[in-house]
Write a structure and sequence with these properties.
This is NADP-dependent oxidoreductase. This protein has about 350 residues and is an alpha/beta fold. It is built from ten helices and 15 strands.
Amino acid sequence: MSDLPSVSREVRLVTVPSGLPRPEDLAVVEAPLPAPGPGEVVLRNRFFTVFASLRTLLGGGVEGAPFPPVRPGDALFGPAIGEVVTAPDSGELRVGDLVSHWWGWREYAVVRVADCSPLAGALPDPVMNLSQGRTVYGALTRGARLRPGDTVFVSGGAGAVGSLAGPIARLLGAGRVIGSTGSPDKAKRMVAELGYDAVVVRGEGALVGQLAAAAPDGIDVLFDNVGGEDLRASVATARAGARFVLVGALSGQLAVDGTGATAPVELDSYQLVLKQITMLGYSAGNDPDVQAEWTDRFAGWARSGAIGFPYVRVDGIDEAPRALHELMIGRHLGTVVVAL
Protein backbone atom coordinates (compact mmCIF):
# COMPACT_ATOMS: atom_id res chain seq x y z
CA MET A 1 0.00 0.00 0.00
CA SER A 2 2.87 2.38 0.71
CA ASP A 3 3.94 2.23 -2.96
CA LEU A 4 0.60 3.54 -4.18
CA PRO A 5 0.42 7.15 -5.34
CA SER A 6 -1.76 9.45 -3.28
CA VAL A 7 -3.31 10.94 -6.43
CA SER A 8 -4.27 9.71 -9.88
CA ARG A 9 -4.79 11.73 -13.02
CA GLU A 10 -8.16 11.40 -14.75
CA VAL A 11 -10.11 13.02 -17.58
CA ARG A 12 -13.13 15.04 -16.50
CA LEU A 13 -15.90 16.81 -18.34
CA VAL A 14 -15.57 20.58 -17.91
CA THR A 15 -18.50 21.83 -20.00
CA VAL A 16 -21.34 20.13 -21.83
CA PRO A 17 -20.25 20.21 -25.49
CA SER A 18 -22.01 22.48 -27.93
CA GLY A 19 -21.93 20.24 -30.96
CA LEU A 20 -19.21 17.60 -31.17
CA PRO A 21 -16.89 17.39 -28.14
CA ARG A 22 -13.73 19.48 -28.38
CA PRO A 23 -10.52 19.07 -26.36
CA GLU A 24 -11.33 22.18 -24.31
CA ASP A 25 -14.56 20.54 -23.08
CA LEU A 26 -12.39 18.11 -21.12
CA ALA A 27 -9.54 18.46 -18.64
CA VAL A 28 -6.89 16.13 -17.26
CA VAL A 29 -6.81 16.69 -13.49
CA GLU A 30 -5.34 15.13 -10.37
CA ALA A 31 -7.73 13.44 -7.96
CA PRO A 32 -7.11 11.68 -4.61
CA LEU A 33 -6.76 7.93 -4.98
CA PRO A 34 -9.05 6.35 -2.37
CA ALA A 35 -7.90 3.42 -0.30
CA PRO A 36 -9.46 0.13 -1.42
CA GLY A 37 -12.18 -1.34 0.74
CA PRO A 38 -13.09 -4.99 1.31
CA GLY A 39 -13.49 -6.83 -1.99
CA GLU A 40 -11.76 -4.09 -3.99
CA VAL A 41 -8.52 -3.95 -5.98
CA VAL A 42 -6.34 -1.08 -7.10
CA LEU A 43 -5.60 -1.15 -10.82
CA ARG A 44 -2.99 0.71 -12.83
CA ASN A 45 -4.59 1.22 -16.20
CA ARG A 46 -2.49 0.25 -19.19
CA PHE A 47 -4.99 0.89 -22.00
CA PHE A 48 -8.45 2.36 -22.46
CA THR A 49 -10.62 2.97 -25.47
CA VAL A 50 -12.11 6.14 -26.90
CA PHE A 51 -15.60 5.40 -28.22
CA ALA A 52 -18.33 7.27 -30.08
CA SER A 53 -21.10 6.52 -27.58
CA LEU A 54 -19.45 8.97 -25.19
CA ARG A 55 -21.08 11.73 -27.26
CA THR A 56 -24.47 10.56 -26.02
CA LEU A 57 -23.33 10.37 -22.39
CA LEU A 58 -21.71 13.82 -22.52
CA GLY A 59 -24.88 15.23 -24.03
CA GLY A 60 -27.11 14.07 -21.18
CA GLY A 61 -27.61 10.40 -21.95
CA VAL A 62 -30.67 8.49 -23.07
CA GLU A 63 -33.37 7.15 -20.77
CA GLY A 64 -33.09 3.38 -20.48
CA ALA A 65 -29.45 3.26 -21.58
CA PRO A 66 -27.15 0.99 -19.54
CA PHE A 67 -24.78 3.83 -18.59
CA PRO A 68 -25.45 7.09 -16.75
CA PRO A 69 -24.83 10.52 -18.28
CA VAL A 70 -21.56 12.32 -17.59
CA ARG A 71 -22.09 15.69 -15.91
CA PRO A 72 -19.61 18.59 -15.67
CA GLY A 73 -17.07 17.67 -13.00
CA ASP A 74 -17.51 13.92 -13.55
CA ALA A 75 -14.68 11.69 -14.73
CA LEU A 76 -15.25 9.86 -18.00
CA PHE A 77 -15.37 6.08 -18.01
CA GLY A 78 -15.19 3.23 -20.50
CA PRO A 79 -13.53 -0.09 -21.37
CA ALA A 80 -10.00 -0.47 -20.03
CA ILE A 81 -7.28 -2.98 -19.29
CA GLY A 82 -5.61 -2.61 -15.91
CA GLU A 83 -2.84 -4.30 -13.98
CA VAL A 84 -3.62 -5.32 -10.41
CA VAL A 85 -1.48 -3.30 -7.98
CA THR A 86 -3.11 -4.42 -4.72
CA ALA A 87 -5.63 -7.19 -4.11
CA PRO A 88 -7.34 -8.90 -1.15
CA ASP A 89 -5.19 -11.69 0.29
CA SER A 90 -7.94 -14.28 -0.09
CA GLY A 91 -9.24 -13.19 -3.49
CA GLU A 92 -8.97 -14.71 -6.94
CA LEU A 93 -6.87 -11.82 -8.27
CA ARG A 94 -3.15 -11.42 -7.61
CA VAL A 95 -0.76 -8.51 -7.99
CA GLY A 96 0.39 -8.34 -11.62
CA ASP A 97 -2.76 -9.87 -13.11
CA LEU A 98 -4.33 -8.11 -16.07
CA VAL A 99 -8.08 -7.53 -16.03
CA SER A 100 -10.64 -5.78 -18.18
CA HIS A 101 -13.02 -3.34 -16.51
CA TRP A 102 -15.04 -0.15 -17.15
CA TRP A 103 -13.04 2.50 -15.30
CA GLY A 104 -10.84 3.86 -18.05
CA TRP A 105 -9.96 7.53 -18.61
CA ARG A 106 -7.79 7.53 -15.44
CA GLU A 107 -4.32 6.29 -14.54
CA TYR A 108 -5.37 4.32 -11.45
CA ALA A 109 -8.77 2.95 -10.44
CA VAL A 110 -10.22 1.34 -7.33
CA VAL A 111 -12.62 -1.34 -8.58
CA ARG A 112 -14.68 -4.10 -7.03
CA VAL A 113 -13.26 -7.55 -7.75
CA ALA A 114 -16.70 -8.54 -9.01
CA ASP A 115 -16.43 -5.84 -11.70
CA CYS A 116 -13.11 -7.14 -13.06
CA SER A 117 -12.73 -9.81 -15.73
CA PRO A 118 -9.35 -11.58 -15.62
CA LEU A 119 -7.59 -11.90 -18.97
CA ALA A 120 -6.81 -15.53 -19.69
CA GLY A 121 -4.05 -14.79 -22.19
CA ALA A 122 -5.77 -16.56 -25.07
CA LEU A 123 -5.29 -13.57 -27.39
CA PRO A 124 -1.87 -12.77 -28.87
CA ASP A 125 -1.89 -9.18 -27.54
CA PRO A 126 -3.66 -7.96 -24.37
CA VAL A 127 -4.94 -4.87 -26.17
CA MET A 128 -7.09 -7.14 -28.37
CA ASN A 129 -9.34 -7.64 -25.36
CA LEU A 130 -10.60 -4.09 -26.00
CA SER A 131 -12.13 -5.05 -29.34
CA GLN A 132 -15.87 -4.80 -29.83
CA GLY A 133 -15.87 -8.05 -31.74
CA ARG A 134 -18.25 -9.65 -29.25
CA THR A 135 -20.97 -7.26 -30.39
CA VAL A 136 -20.25 -8.04 -34.04
CA TYR A 137 -20.10 -11.79 -33.55
CA GLY A 138 -23.27 -11.90 -31.48
CA ALA A 139 -25.18 -9.63 -33.85
CA LEU A 140 -24.22 -11.63 -36.93
CA THR A 141 -24.68 -15.11 -35.45
CA ARG A 142 -27.66 -14.50 -33.12
CA GLY A 143 -29.32 -11.40 -34.52
CA ALA A 144 -28.94 -11.67 -38.30
CA ARG A 145 -28.29 -15.44 -38.35
CA LEU A 146 -25.85 -14.97 -41.20
CA ARG A 147 -25.93 -17.76 -43.80
CA PRO A 148 -23.16 -18.88 -46.17
CA GLY A 149 -23.22 -16.84 -49.35
CA ASP A 150 -25.17 -13.89 -47.89
CA THR A 151 -24.52 -10.39 -49.19
CA VAL A 152 -23.82 -8.28 -46.09
CA PHE A 153 -23.88 -4.49 -45.83
CA VAL A 154 -21.99 -2.97 -42.88
CA SER A 155 -22.84 0.67 -42.30
CA GLY A 156 -20.06 2.62 -40.64
CA GLY A 157 -17.55 0.00 -41.72
CA ALA A 158 -14.39 1.90 -40.74
CA GLY A 159 -15.02 2.47 -37.02
CA ALA A 160 -14.25 0.40 -33.96
CA VAL A 161 -17.18 -1.94 -34.64
CA GLY A 162 -17.33 -1.84 -38.42
CA SER A 163 -13.62 -2.49 -38.93
CA LEU A 164 -14.23 -5.92 -37.38
CA ALA A 165 -17.71 -6.50 -38.81
CA GLY A 166 -16.49 -6.86 -42.38
CA PRO A 167 -13.75 -9.41 -41.63
CA ILE A 168 -15.96 -11.37 -39.20
CA ALA A 169 -18.82 -11.53 -41.72
CA ARG A 170 -16.38 -12.96 -44.25
CA LEU A 171 -15.09 -15.56 -41.78
CA LEU A 172 -18.67 -16.57 -41.00
CA GLY A 173 -19.29 -17.32 -44.66
CA ALA A 174 -20.63 -14.14 -46.28
CA GLY A 175 -20.36 -14.24 -50.03
CA ARG A 176 -20.04 -10.48 -50.54
CA VAL A 177 -19.33 -7.77 -47.96
CA ILE A 178 -20.05 -4.11 -48.60
CA GLY A 179 -19.29 -1.25 -46.23
CA SER A 180 -20.05 2.45 -45.93
CA THR A 181 -18.00 5.40 -44.76
CA GLY A 182 -17.88 9.15 -45.07
CA SER A 183 -14.29 9.26 -46.33
CA PRO A 184 -12.95 8.30 -49.79
CA ASP A 185 -9.53 7.58 -48.26
CA LYS A 186 -11.07 5.25 -45.69
CA ALA A 187 -13.04 3.54 -48.45
CA LYS A 188 -9.79 2.62 -50.19
CA ARG A 189 -8.29 1.33 -46.96
CA MET A 190 -11.39 -0.71 -46.16
CA VAL A 191 -10.98 -2.62 -49.42
CA ALA A 192 -7.20 -2.93 -49.18
CA GLU A 193 -6.82 -3.63 -45.45
CA LEU A 194 -10.15 -4.96 -44.19
CA GLY A 195 -11.21 -7.09 -47.16
CA TYR A 196 -14.42 -5.32 -48.13
CA ASP A 197 -15.55 -6.13 -51.67
CA ALA A 198 -16.96 -2.63 -52.18
CA VAL A 199 -17.51 0.54 -50.17
CA VAL A 200 -20.13 3.26 -50.63
CA VAL A 201 -19.25 6.79 -49.56
CA ARG A 202 -21.70 9.18 -47.97
CA GLY A 203 -21.56 12.55 -49.69
CA GLU A 204 -20.54 11.13 -53.08
CA GLY A 205 -23.98 10.98 -54.63
CA ALA A 206 -27.11 9.19 -53.51
CA LEU A 207 -26.23 6.34 -51.19
CA VAL A 208 -29.11 4.19 -52.44
CA GLY A 209 -27.73 4.33 -55.98
CA GLN A 210 -24.24 3.44 -54.84
CA LEU A 211 -25.51 0.52 -52.78
CA ALA A 212 -27.66 -0.78 -55.62
CA ALA A 213 -24.61 -0.74 -57.89
CA ALA A 214 -22.45 -2.49 -55.27
CA ALA A 215 -25.14 -5.13 -54.60
CA PRO A 216 -27.07 -5.53 -57.87
CA ASP A 217 -28.90 -8.60 -56.52
CA GLY A 218 -29.74 -6.88 -53.24
CA ILE A 219 -28.53 -7.35 -49.68
CA ASP A 220 -29.44 -10.21 -47.37
CA VAL A 221 -28.06 -8.79 -44.12
CA LEU A 222 -27.63 -5.28 -42.77
CA PHE A 223 -25.24 -4.80 -39.86
CA ASP A 224 -26.19 -1.25 -38.94
CA ASN A 225 -23.97 1.08 -36.93
CA VAL A 226 -25.35 4.27 -38.42
CA GLY A 227 -29.09 4.47 -39.13
CA GLY A 228 -30.11 7.52 -41.14
CA GLU A 229 -29.41 7.46 -44.87
CA ASP A 230 -27.63 4.11 -44.62
CA LEU A 231 -30.73 2.47 -43.15
CA ARG A 232 -33.01 4.01 -45.77
CA ALA A 233 -30.74 2.80 -48.58
CA SER A 234 -30.69 -0.68 -47.05
CA VAL A 235 -34.50 -0.91 -47.07
CA ALA A 236 -34.55 0.09 -50.73
CA THR A 237 -31.85 -2.43 -51.65
CA ALA A 238 -32.92 -5.36 -49.48
CA ARG A 239 -33.84 -8.72 -50.92
CA ALA A 240 -36.99 -10.49 -49.81
CA GLY A 241 -36.52 -11.88 -46.32
CA ALA A 242 -33.54 -9.66 -45.49
CA ARG A 243 -32.44 -9.56 -41.85
CA PHE A 244 -31.42 -6.22 -40.34
CA VAL A 245 -29.59 -6.03 -37.01
CA LEU A 246 -29.11 -2.59 -35.46
CA VAL A 247 -26.21 -2.08 -33.05
CA GLY A 248 -25.53 1.68 -33.19
CA ALA A 249 -26.86 5.08 -34.16
CA LEU A 250 -23.86 7.07 -35.38
CA SER A 251 -26.06 9.26 -37.55
CA GLY A 252 -27.30 10.81 -34.32
CA GLN A 253 -24.25 10.37 -32.12
CA LEU A 254 -21.99 12.18 -34.59
CA ALA A 255 -24.48 14.81 -35.74
CA VAL A 256 -22.87 18.24 -35.42
CA ASP A 257 -26.16 19.99 -34.67
CA GLY A 258 -27.47 17.75 -31.91
CA THR A 259 -26.77 16.23 -28.52
CA GLY A 260 -26.13 12.68 -29.70
CA ALA A 261 -29.19 11.48 -27.79
CA THR A 262 -31.52 10.88 -30.75
CA ALA A 263 -31.16 9.38 -34.23
CA PRO A 264 -34.45 9.91 -36.09
CA VAL A 265 -34.93 8.35 -39.52
CA GLU A 266 -37.91 8.12 -41.88
CA LEU A 267 -38.44 4.69 -43.45
CA ASP A 268 -40.88 3.36 -46.02
CA SER A 269 -42.67 0.81 -43.86
CA TYR A 270 -44.56 -0.46 -46.89
CA GLN A 271 -41.26 -1.84 -48.21
CA LEU A 272 -40.59 -3.54 -44.89
CA VAL A 273 -43.89 -5.39 -45.24
CA LEU A 274 -43.58 -6.23 -48.93
CA LYS A 275 -40.04 -7.54 -48.58
CA GLN A 276 -40.73 -9.19 -45.20
CA ILE A 277 -37.67 -7.55 -43.70
CA THR A 278 -36.93 -8.38 -40.07
CA MET A 279 -35.30 -5.68 -37.97
CA LEU A 280 -33.74 -6.33 -34.56
CA GLY A 281 -31.89 -4.13 -32.10
CA TYR A 282 -28.97 -6.03 -30.56
CA SER A 283 -26.77 -5.47 -27.51
CA ALA A 284 -24.08 -7.96 -26.53
CA GLY A 285 -24.53 -6.84 -22.92
CA ASN A 286 -27.91 -8.58 -22.94
CA ASP A 287 -26.43 -11.78 -24.38
CA PRO A 288 -23.90 -13.10 -21.81
CA ASP A 289 -23.58 -16.52 -23.45
CA VAL A 290 -21.85 -15.05 -26.49
CA GLN A 291 -18.70 -13.93 -24.62
CA ALA A 292 -16.98 -17.30 -24.16
CA GLU A 293 -17.85 -18.44 -27.67
CA TRP A 294 -16.55 -15.20 -29.16
CA THR A 295 -13.30 -15.27 -27.19
CA ASP A 296 -12.58 -18.80 -28.37
CA ARG A 297 -13.31 -17.99 -32.02
CA PHE A 298 -11.38 -14.71 -31.90
CA ALA A 299 -8.34 -16.35 -30.35
CA GLY A 300 -8.28 -19.07 -32.99
CA TRP A 301 -8.72 -16.65 -35.87
CA ALA A 302 -6.15 -14.21 -34.48
CA ARG A 303 -3.48 -16.83 -33.87
CA SER A 304 -3.94 -18.24 -37.38
CA GLY A 305 -3.61 -14.77 -38.90
CA ALA A 306 -7.17 -14.84 -40.25
CA ILE A 307 -8.10 -11.63 -38.45
CA GLY A 308 -6.38 -8.75 -36.70
CA PHE A 309 -7.42 -5.88 -34.45
CA PRO A 310 -7.34 -2.59 -36.37
CA TYR A 311 -6.58 0.17 -33.91
CA VAL A 312 -4.89 3.53 -33.58
CA ARG A 313 -2.61 3.93 -30.56
CA VAL A 314 -2.51 7.25 -28.72
CA ASP A 315 0.19 7.57 -26.05
CA GLY A 316 -0.54 9.25 -22.73
CA ILE A 317 -3.61 10.42 -20.87
CA ASP A 318 -2.85 14.03 -21.81
CA GLU A 319 -3.66 13.17 -25.43
CA ALA A 320 -7.03 11.57 -24.62
CA PRO A 321 -9.18 14.73 -25.06
CA ARG A 322 -7.67 15.31 -28.50
CA ALA A 323 -8.18 11.64 -29.39
CA LEU A 324 -11.89 11.90 -28.58
CA HIS A 325 -12.28 14.96 -30.82
CA GLU A 326 -10.44 13.24 -33.66
CA LEU A 327 -12.64 10.17 -33.36
CA MET A 328 -15.77 12.33 -33.48
CA ILE A 329 -14.71 14.06 -36.69
CA GLY A 330 -13.84 10.74 -38.34
CA ARG A 331 -10.07 11.01 -38.53
CA HIS A 332 -9.20 7.42 -37.59
CA LEU A 333 -9.88 3.90 -38.88
CA GLY A 334 -10.49 1.20 -36.31
CA THR A 335 -10.55 1.41 -32.51
CA VAL A 336 -8.81 4.35 -30.83
CA VAL A 337 -6.77 3.11 -27.84
CA VAL A 338 -5.01 5.31 -25.30
CA ALA A 339 -1.89 3.64 -23.90
CA LEU A 340 -0.64 4.67 -20.45
